[in-house]
Design brief:
The chain is mostly helical. The protein has helices at about 1-5, 20-30, 40-65. The radius of gyration is 17 Å and the shape is globular. The N and C termini lie far apart (about 45 Å). About 10% of the residues are buried.
Amino acid sequence: MYSVANDTNSIPVNPPSIKEITLLLAKLGGFMGRKGDGEPGCKVIWRGLMKLQDILIGWTAAQLLNLPIDVGNA
């Protein structure tokens, strides 16, 4: 989630706080985080959770495609 929301390939050394995770989810849901935007609401956090679920499904599918194929020793 961190690398997708921040458009990077690296992850932080220390885990983010709950507030940072909430803001990352909101960012995935379309929250801009501008100075006058205030705190993210339930709807944008929900959209972020749905996008995170889609990302996890895609990641899982990609992992399954990279599994070695066992064709047997016949």
